[in-house]
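Homework-ish question, so no full write-ups if that breaks the rules, but can someone show me the predicted structure for this set?
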Amino acid sequence: MKLNMVKALNLALRQEMERDRDVLVLGEDVGVDGGVFRVTEDLQRRFGSQRVIDSPLAEAAIIGASVGMALYGLKPVCEIQFSGFAFQCFHQIENHAARYRQRSQGRFHCAMVVRMPYGGGVRALEHHSESEEQFYAHIPGLKMVIPSGPRNARALLVSAIRDPDPVIFFEAKGLYHAAREEVPDDPEMMPLGRAQIVREGRDLTLISYGAMLRVAREAADTLAQEDGAEAEVIDLLTVAPLDRATLAASVQKTGRAVIIHEAPQSFGPGAEIAASIMERAFLSLEAPIKRVAAYDVPFVGFARERATVPDVPRVLAAARETLAF
Amino acid sequence: MPRTPLEPRFTIEHLSILDSDGNLDTALEPDLPADELKRLYRAMLLGRRLDERMVRLQRQGRIGTFAPIKGQEASQLGSVSTLRPTDWMVPSFRETAAMIWRGWPIDKLLLFFAGFLEGGQPAPAQHDLGITIPVATQLPHAVGLAYAAQYRGEDAVVMAFFGDGATSEGDFHEAANFAGVWHVPVVFVCQNNQWAISVPLKKQTHSRTIAQKALAYGFPGIQVDGNDVLAVHAASREAVERARAGGGPTLIECVTYRLGVHTTADDPTKYRTDEEVAEWARKDPLTRFTEYLRKKNLLEDGLEAQVDAEIAEAIRRFEATPPPDPLAIFAHAYAELPPDVAAQRRELAERLQAPPPRRADEEHPPAPPMRGQRMTRR
Ligand SMILES: Cc1ncc(C[n+]2csc(CCOP(=O)(O)OP(=O)(O)O)c2C)c(N)n1
Ligand SMILES: [Mg+2]
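A: Not a homework solution, just the prediction itself:
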């Protein structure tokens, strides 16, 4: 079946709910409305309002109640309508979902998934366009997953639901309808914590994830055409735990790395990725590692979004500087 | 030890003065001067006409997503019109009519919805906060403003707006609790429009009214017919006067209805029936107020054309806005840009100076619109 990312995610939810009665969905507008992006479309009709719950408007209680359900043994897949509204439940995620296993010394744990749309490119108002993966990636006890297309979105969501630890699952709004891809009918999984090399190359490593992966790939194509440089492109898929081995092996080969993300640069995932490469591949480095990220300013208004979100020319400039170093 | 009922017992009132059939309770009718009535009516009409115009602008891609107000004009204007300019108004995201009453230029609001932060900058002397999108998060700010006014010995009152859905958020309850404990001059105006996107009130709260939530925090709550501008005005005036006199906070629940879409990215046919909408359309706040003014002989000829011309003029000003200067993204991030952010600004400036090396296929393709959104030409 050729599916866009919305439909692919919907398929994962439906099949996991069919497979496991403990899986349930809750959030704002996920039931009758099928989610504001339609990811949970039709699930309430199929599985009933006890399993697909239109919650009151309260992110803290959505996550807090999910923690309770998870402690009891259910597997809640909650939706936060936009990642910009997850600060309202950040304490439940950080204080509890991430820590229960440790706090209870293994007696309890929170096998739950928190899905949220993130990222820009949709001409939306404040809090509807930002990228906040760095906050979650920083929290011990959590996993932070960001797919880059329909097929891996479906497979990663299945893995996230079956994972025994809490998983924050970011869905790039700009990718929801961007492309359709062949998605197999039978459930497919992808291991969490494993990056993928989506283009092989020997001259430079471009590292990205989510909606920025397309930017990295386009830059790699241009580098090949115009500069005769072959860039290796790595799709992280899981931001945390980071697949440090894949990153290091690639840079040991290429000697150069550029990291691209939509989150603001300072203290973002790029910093951790760069540090990790330094630790494992320092002697292979031919040039300083570069980051192409959003500038360190709060939301800029969608009329000016392109001034700060990384684009192909910016990645090309960074890549060329790195290659020429 | 028996069970003893505690005093005082609580009651919640519902206030209606002018009902949808045009019946008027003359004993409760506020003594508003003719000029004030005409001003209110004009603002309601402007709110309605602008709303309809903005939906078209959005469909044409000239502005982005916004939250229409159709049906809620009386709730917004009956309440905000009881404030003095020196009082404070704290909106959420669906208060276009109230914001215009408070002096926001229409073209500035349009600019905001076209993705320019400039549209969110209040005028220097304006005692208004801007649009707040995270539901209920503005309510503690209102309490803080009210505390500050009291602390300074000034008699300003703060009026804060929010929806029925917002009453489920912790921030609402925390704000109400602080307001009660601190006994500050704040008026919470809940526009209970029956829906929070697709979630109906009965799935939002198991309370009989929203007004009664105030009682838990130790201050009065009242429910009013939110489509009756006279009732909203009367209840608001009472609350504002009490607050100003040191009587503390009030919660006003305006029972109203969102006649239009939640935002222009929403499809309400998924979750509510046409019959329900039609029934509320019968209770339209504008129709009933028009009839009231007609009986008083206060309807002005040509008002609609006047209002449309004002809107058209504002749209012209808005469309004349020069294209965004990308460097402006750094203008207000900090009082003084830290050196590393200043370096980012320089990088952007250099990128903008550089001859455009971009081929068409290197450009970002236009972003896929959110459901219901259209592409823009701006
Ligand atoms: C904290 C937060 N969560 C979710 C949203 C997304 N959202 C925007 S408006 C809305 C419903 C608000 O309902 P209500 O408070 O009744 O106000 P109304 O839209 O009806 O005016 C939701 C869920 C948000 N803006 N903020
Ligand atoms: Mg509402």
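Now go work out the reasoning yourself. Hint: Residues 190 and 261 of chain B are 19 Å apart (CA to CA).
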